[in-house]
Fold:
Amino acid sequence: MNKKQRVALLGCGFIGEVHAANLQAHPGVELVWVADAEPTRAAAFATRFGARAASVTEAINDEQIDMVLIASATPTHADLLEAAARAGKAIYCEKPVDLSLERARSAVANVLPYNVPVTVGFNRRFDVSHQQLKQQLRQGRIGPAELIQMVC
Structure:
């Protein structure tokens, strides 16, 4: 039998909850650590999902962790991405890496030398409706986009 992948989840907000539920339901995964800027929220979250609360540093640097899932507030993504890469972890990072394109690019440049698997989540870009909208924008069939609001 294959070893379960041990995961540290950073961020206990709405999207962290979505990821925690999915991780908990996956037979090949063990959600080990959860960390949040609010330790009391992390403790409650850990209890709810059968994990343990930890500091971000403790969770990322645990040698038994295989992967770090970053679901924290956007301004923390780039720094956490770099820290997880330095620790040699596989990484799933919620979008965006940073609000600044320059900072996002520097984070990518800083992570690349560690040669760790990294995925940035934005699955909706593959939806047929999103592809059709993109095509219509490029063809000039609709006016320029001013606001795109996604509703699931």
Notes: The beta strands are 5-10, 29-35, 52-53, 67-70, 90-94, 118-121. The first helix runs from residue 14 to 25. The chain has a mean pLDDT of 93. Helices lie at 14-25, 39-49, 56-61, 77-86, 101-111, 128-139.
